[in-house]
Automatic annotation (TrEMBL):
Native source species: Anaerostipes hominis
Subunit (UniProt): Monomer.
Protein name: Glutamine--tRNA ligase
Domain tRNA synthetases class I (E and Q) anti-codon binding: 455-528
Primary site of residence: cytoplasm
Residue stretches making up the Glutamyl/glutaminyl-tRNA synthetase class Ib catalytic domain: 25-335
Phylogenetic placement of the source organism: Bacteria, Bacillati, Bacillota, Clostridia, Lachnospirales
Reactions this protein catalyses: tRNA(Gln) + L-glutamine + ATP = L-glutaminyl-tRNA(Gln) + AMP + diphosphate
Record's keyword terms, sorted: Aminoacyl-tRNA synthetase, ATP-binding, Cytoplasm, Ligase, Nucleotide-binding, Protein biosynthesis
Residues that bind ATP: E33, P34, N35, H39, I40, G41, H42, A43, K44, S45, T229
Span of the annotated motif 'HIGH' region: 32-42
Length: 552
């Protein structure tokens, strides 16, 4: 008997609506404003809305909520489109734009004016705030609130025709200045703004406000369930007022869910934009950020993001999620998919003094020891190798089983070697380690059955390919928290460490930007899609090898 899967509260609402015959077909939407790049929190909304439409055989609409030309750019439109496609949300090659509805929105505004439900107001922005009241005191009516519909219509058309200065007049809804909900105190529906719009150019000099435009967009498109985050809960009465007063026969239903809060990350667009503008990061796709383009560049996969959202779930109340859960998901996704290769990030040379100078052997190495289907590859082995500096110590620390004078270790997929000597420069830095090898131990096991406790990886020096490796940590100083009192970000000075003189095995020469690998003993790495060139490989660390984190 299959275990019953419990439905989240949104699924329960949808199923009840379908059962009662309120809707014949479910329509959901993802409506980003193109004023920045999407981040990990947006992925939750994309996958939730797309997943619900798919689950109930409905339609998923991908729409740009582009009603504010002061902050919107074509660059953001392009990046958002790439993110949605990367996550696998199929929008049937149809993209909706709120700006395509400007004519219909304007008609709705005139309709409200004619009904006596909207008026043109001449108060300044400061006066509007003053008249609005406070959370404990009611607002008071604008002196322009009782203008007749005919006068309002004439003034509104003059606003549209560019006869008034920016900011001199607004169109407001006529609702209730004493409402306990501040959003219902005659909110602004339209403002004058002479701005070039990315989609409509300079066709318009008045633009609708979000709280007016958004419910109309949903209604125009036949959206049944307008799913948004909890900060819009107080806006729901206004959403419902707009679709009711504009007299839509089948108005959409707004449902709020909890935002995704990740510990110690920066998600606010204005904070990210400041990091970009100040040159602290090298763009919206800097791998230290959690924008979707940054996660993609770092080497995260759509599958890992989808798995993460499954673990997070859908809730009605806010909670924080440990960033380690996201790292767990990418490790879990990559471990059986990616080749395990050798890379030496802090190299010193190892010379096998009793190995023939001109000899090269090709060791057959499994591409992934946990996934036999990935096959094998040939890796060159010779007299001179590179090993990690930390894999040799002159003086043996306690519980150290790697190379030190007199100790024998296993070279992974190679031979047993015993340290006989080393070379150091005048400052005492080791530059070369000398070993002898046991020819009978080829493959890493000795016929006489003797065991060694240490195994280290290596790259054949004559065949090694030079690479730059970037080690990323959280851009936030986790001990201090995300933000300072002045609102600036608490930056981690060690968020990026660049290693210029690394060596990787020759098989990686064929890698394409975006390809990812497990560097044995080091972590998972991705060939950077931005800075890699034909003669310069740059690898980003996606995530370290291990963590104590386990999902509950």
């Amino acid at each position: 008997m299959e275990e019953a899967i419990s439905k989240n509260f949104i699924e329960q609402i949808i199923e009840e609506d379908l059962k009662e015959g309120k809707y014949e077909k479910i329509v959901t939407r993802f409506p980003p404003e193109p004023n920045g790049y999407l981040h990990i929190g947006h992925a939750k909304s994309i996958l939730l809305n797309y997943g619900l439409a798919k689950e109930y055989g409905g339609d998923f609409h991908f729409r740009f909520d582009d009603t504010n030309p002061t902050k919107e750019k074509t660059e953001y439109v392009d990046s958002i489109k790439e993110d949605v496609e990367w996550l696998g949300a199929d929008y049937d090659q149809t993209i909706y734009f709120a700006s395509d509805y400007f004519d219909r929105m304007y008609e709705c505004a005139e309709f409200l004016i004619k009904k006596g439900k909207a008026y043109v107001c001449d108060l300044t922005p400061e006066e509007i705030r003053e008249y609005r009241g406070t959370l404990t005191e009611p607002g008071k009516n604008s002196p322009y609130r009782d203008r007749m519909p005919e006068e309002n219509l004439e003034l509104f058309r003059a606003m549209k025709n560019g006869e008034f200065e920016d900011g001199s007049k607004v169109l407001r809804a006529k609702i209730d200045m004493t409402s306990g909900n501040m959003n219902m105190r005659d909110p602004i529906l339209y403002r004058i703004a002479r701005m070039e719009h990315h989609n409509t150019g300079d066709d318009w000099c008045i633009y609708p406000m979000y709280d007016f435009a958004h419910p109309l967009e949903d209604a125009f498109e036949g959206v049944t369930h307008s799913i948004c985050t909890l900060e819009f809960e107080d806006h729901r009465p206004l959403y419902d007022w707009v679709v009711k007063e504009c007299e839509f026969l089948h108005p959409p239903k707004q449902i709020e869910f909890a935002k995704l809060y990740l510990t110690n990350v920066v998600t606010g667009k204005r904070y990210i934009k400041k990091l970009v503008d100040d040159g602290i990061v090298d763009g919206w796709d800097d791998p230290r950020l959690v924008t979707l383009s940054a996660l993609r560049r770092r080497g995260y996969t759509p599958e890992s993001i989808r798995r993460f959202m499954e673990l997070v779930g859908v809730a009605k109340s806010h909670s924080s999620v440990d960033y380690a859960m996201l790292e767990y998901c990418i490790r879990d996704d990559l471990k059986l998919k990616k080749p395990r290769v050798s890379a030496v990030l802090d190299p010193i040379k190892l010379v096998i003094t009793n190995y023939p100078e001109d000899q090269v052997e090709y060791m057959e190495v499994k591409n992934n020891q946990e996934n036999e289907e990935m096959g094998t590859r040939k890796v060159p082995f010779c007299r001179e190798l590179y090993i990690e500096r930390d894999d040799f110590k002159i003086e043996r620390p306690k519980k150290y089983f790697r190379l030190y004078p007199g100790n024998e270790v296993r070279l992974m997929n190679g031979y047993f070697v015993t340290c006989t000597d080393y070379v150091a420069d005048e400052d005492g830095n080791v530059t070369e380690v000398h070993c002898t090898y046991d020819p009978a131990s080829r493959g890493g096991n000795s016929p006489d059955g003797r065991k060694v406790k240490g195994t280290i990886h290596w790259v054949a020096a004559p065949f090694a390919k030079k690479a730059e490796v970037r080690l990323y940590e959280n851009i936030v100083d986790e001990e201090k928290g995300v933000y300072n009192e002045d609102g600036s970000v608490n930056l981690n000075p060690n968020s990026l460490k660049i290693l210029k003189d690394c060596y990787v095995e020759p098989s990686l020469e064929e890698a394409a930007p975006g390809d990812s690998f497990q560097f044995v003993r080091q972590g998972y790495f991705c060939l950077d899609t931005k800075d890699t060139s034909e003669d310069h490989m740059v690898f980003n660390r996606i995530v370290s090898m291990k963590s104590s984190y386990q999902p509950k």
